Input
Amino acid sequence: MQENAKFPDLSDAERKALEELMPDEINEIISSGIKRRHFLKLFAVTGTALLASHMLGIEQLMARSAELSTPPPLPIENGINLSFKVNGATKKLMVDSRMTLLDMLRERLELTGSKKGCDHGQCGACTVIVDDKRVLSCLTLAATCEDKKVTTIEGLATGNELHPMQSSFIKHDGFQCGYCTPGQICSAVALMEEAKNGEASYVTANVREKKAAVKLSDEEIRERMSGNICRCGAYPNIVDAIREVHGDKAVAQLWQFAEGTN
Amino acid sequence: MRAFKYTNAPDSASAIRTVSANPAAKFLGGGTNLVDLMKEDVMHPTELMDVTRLSYTKIEKKNDGVSIGATATNSTTANHELIRKNYPLLSMAILAGASAQIRNMATNGGNLNQRTRCSYFYDVNMACNKREPGSGCAALNGVNKNHAILGWSEKCVATYPSDMAVALAALDAVVQVEGPNNSSRSIPFAEFHRLPADHPEKDNNLKQGELITAIDLPANQLAEKSYYLKIRERSSYAFALVSVAAALVTEGGRISEVRIALGGVAHKPWRATVAEKWLTGKEATTANFKAAAAAEMKNAKPLQHNKYKVGLALNAITRALEGAMQGGAYGTMEAESTSKN
Output
């Protein structure tokens, strides 16, 4: 079957559902990949968010990319031989001492999920998780990453199963253009650990109180996410998305498609 | 970015030896400021000595106080039980600065070594005595709304950006330094950073190759009543226009000890010694706080665009002292001002 080859990540049932639900678009998807409108339609007509996110996830949400073989190291001035882990895989390569972690991820390792926004530590679009802490990859020299463990947006999903924070951002429409989203999600994932560890913030009522897991109010989420700027202004939806993952009950989805837009 | 040699410091002695031998070498901490300045070509070291893997990460009791390691991160420090409990002023100040990501990267030693965010310092096309001694100060008669109102000179009107350092100034911290040939010295915090005078290119009194290893916090009775108030143009992730670290001890309503330090107003964390002296022995009332703030601000010399900072500092000092009196819990000041409206 041709579709089998085109949708290797889908199960037989999912492939069948896709063909039945969107017979008009199937050829277009096969030839040019899934587009936002396909995604939205799938989401809307069926409520099969799982299928939709699988389809989109393959190319965008997980920002997964084909593994390229590491080029052989050539001697360069001030070159540094590095060995470190990215999303669980050990990488060995030689980098220019001037190269940032962000540029190494994007330009050398083909991991373009982490975004270059300002490149000066002012926007948070490049946020990744290094040794379990969220950091700015644009201000981290690649050379400093020897033996460290880097997690990027590409490493959050398990196979085709999105990380709960990724699913929650979709449910709550926590983005518009999506450029800041990989950084927002990495930041939010690390924030969940910080809250579990009882870390304080500037708006914590009393920093002297003994540390225990903290329950984040909306104000706490906003303060702790202030290092991630969203130019589209999706902040209320981002806060909802984080609150759902952080809390123990579902947060109402505040949007729906208008009638007739299916 | 210009070429530089990167070395992961194997031990402190060889790191110090290398950096003291090369005037264009720098120690690298979290890099949150230095890497950015190198991208902008404001700073161009030929060699970076990464000291973040040296064993200066401990936060531990020392004598009656606490010693915080120079390569411990700002996040670790702010959240350490010893600091939260005994020096909440320091936790609050650190958490008021930057973002979670930057605090995770930034080291304590690096925080003290960060440079001013004066936009003329950052713009390599502008005159700046701090960046290029003798070239002039573009800020003196330029857009200087973010600049100093105290202690500036004709050579430089820049302000010091750190929040952490403001709290350390109030806490009478001591900076521990190792230098070449196994030398070491202790620098009282008030003598660590400098006023610009004729040499604004020097932010502090460290010599080339001297490495901060720890910052010692002497014991005090201030934890119950301390508060860090930061006034900025947005409510988070911005540098201070004015900030105040305030802490006091009262006995029977009278102030037996008070510490006040200001950020955003000078080339170094500004210890408000005039206000402290004025308040000591007086009753802890808002009227007295205001009078003390006024006494301190008598010495202010605002520039063309920053006269607002004098009024802001007056109110901020008063509010910070009120916040400290209320136990320093976040939100007390906000609730207070709302209920009065």
Observations:
- The beta strands of chain A are 79-86, 89-96, 127-130, 133-136, 149-151.
